[in-house]
Write a structure and sequence with these properties.
This protein has 313 residues and is an alpha+beta fold. The protein has seven helices and 19 strands. Strands 1, 2, 3, 4, 5, 6, 7, 8, 9, 10, 11, 12, 13 and 14 form a 14-stranded mixed beta sheet that branches. Strands 16-19-18 form a three-stranded mixed beta sheet.
C-alpha cells in the first residue's frame, strides 16, 4: 500500500513493528492503549476507531504473513489494540448497509467517523447517520436522519459537501458546524467558515456564531448564536464569561444528554461565569453551578435537571 494512503495509526504500528518508531510516536501509541484500558472511552479527536482498528489489524496480518515474521512484544501490544477495539465496538453503535449508503446508529455513547474525503463527523448519542463509502459524483452528500452531529469538512471547491437533515439541506465547501435534527426541529449552528441552508424555496447564508432554525411550520429563522455551546460537546475546555442558564441547557443536552427543567421561566435568563473543562462530568458541572449561584440543581433519573431558586439564600 502507498504510504500516503495509509491511516496514520497504521503507519505508527508499522513503525512499531519494525522497531523504527521514535520515542514520541511510541509514547502516543502506548498512551492511547493505557488510556483506553483505564477509561474504556474512545477519544473522538483520534478519528474513527473503526479506521484505527482495521488499519492496525491489516498491518499485523501483513507482518505475520511475511516470510520471517518477528514474533516479539510489539505484536502482543499491537494485537491488544485490535482485541480491545473489537470488544469496544460491540457496544458503541450499530452499522448496516442500505444500497450504497452505510447507516450508523449510536446508542448511549458519542462516536466519530472519518469520511472518505478526510472530513470528520462527531456523532452524539442516539444519532442515525447515513454516508457513502466513497464520494463518486460532483458532490459529497450525507444524511443526518436523527440526533446531532458536529462536522469538520475538508475543503474542496469543486465538490460541495451537503448534509440532508429532515427538510433542510446544508451546503458547504469546507468549514465546521453542528446540526441537530430532533423531533420537529432542525438547528444548524456555524463555528467556522460559511454555510448555506435551504428548505424548499427558502435559503439563508450563515457565518460563524450564526444559526438557522427550522420547525414544522415550514419556515427558516436565522439568528445570532454562541457556536461554543454547540461544538463544546465534543469535549473541549472553554471559559464562558457571561452565559445564561438557558444557553447552558443546550450544552448540557448535547454533551451529556440531560435537559434543564426550569420551575420558574425567569431562571433561563440567570447569567453565570463558568469554566467547562474537558474532564468535567454532569455531576461536577452541577456542583460548580450550585456553588456559584443561588439556584438549586437536582439531577433526576429521567435525564433531567430540575432547576429552582434557592429560597434559603
Amino acid at each position: 500500500m502507498n504510504e500516503k494512503n495509509k491511516h496514520p495509526f497504521e503507519l505508527l504500528v508499522d513503525k512499531y513493528l519494525d522497531g523504527t518508531i521514535t520515542s514520541e510516536e511510541e509514547k502516543l501509541l502506548t498512551s492511547f492503549l493505557d488510556t483506553y484500558k483505564e477509561e474504556g472511552v474512545w477519544n473522538l479527536e483520534l478519528g474513527s476507531k473503526y479506521e484505527v482498528r482495521d488499519a492496525i489489524a491489516q498491518t499485523i496480518n501483513n507482518k505475520l504473513s511475511s516470510p520471517k515474521p518477528k514474533y516479539n512484544k510489539y505484536y502482543m501490544i499491537a494485537a491488544s489494540f485490535v482485541l480491545l477495539l473489537g470488544i469496544f465496538l460491540g457496544v458503541k453503535w450499530q452499522s448496516r448497509i442500505i444500497g450504497d449508503m452505510q447507516v450508523v446508529t449510536t446508542t448511549t455513547q458519542q462516536d466519530s467517523l472519518l469520511l472518505a474525503d478526510g472530513s470528520m463527523v462527531y456523532l452524539n448519542r442516539h444519532t442515525i447517520f447515513r454516508y457513502p463509502k466513497t464520494f463518486r459524483d460532483n458532490q459529497r452528500q450525507v444524511e443526518l436522519e436523527k440526533g446531532s452531529a458536529f462536522f469538520k469538512v475538508t475543503k474542496n471547491p469543486n465538490k460541495p459537501f451537503i448534509v440532508k437533515s429532515g427538510a433542510l439541506k446544508t451546503k458547504v465547501l469546507g468549514t465546521s458546524f453542528n446540526i441537530i435534527n430532533k423531533d420537529t426541529m432542525v438547528n444548524v449552528s456555524v463555528s467556522t467558515g460559511k454555510v448555506g441552508v435551504c428548505a424548499g424555496n427558502q435559503s439563508v447564508k450563515l457565518l460563524p456564531n450564526e444559526q438557522a432554525n427550522w420547525t414544522q411550520n415550514g419556515s427558516i429563522v436565522k439568528r445570532k448564536g454562541n457556536a461554543s455551546l454547540y461544538d463544546n460537546w465534543i469535549h473541549k475546555t472553554i471559559d464562558f464569561e457571561d452565559v445564561s442558564l438557558g444557553e447552558l441547557s443546550t450544552l448540557f443536552e448535547l454533551r451529556f444528554g440531560y435537559s434543564f427543567h426550569f420551575t420558574q421561566p425567569e431562571l433561563k435568563d440567570y447569567h453565570v461565569k463558568i469554566s467547562v473543562l474537558k474532564t468535567d462530568t454532569i455531576e461536577s458541572l452541577v456542583e460548580k453551578l450550585s456553588y456559584i449561584t443561588d439556584v438549586k440543581f437536582k439531577i433526576k433519573d429521567n435525564y433531567e435537571i430540575k432547576i429552582t431558586l434557592d429560597q434559603s439564600m
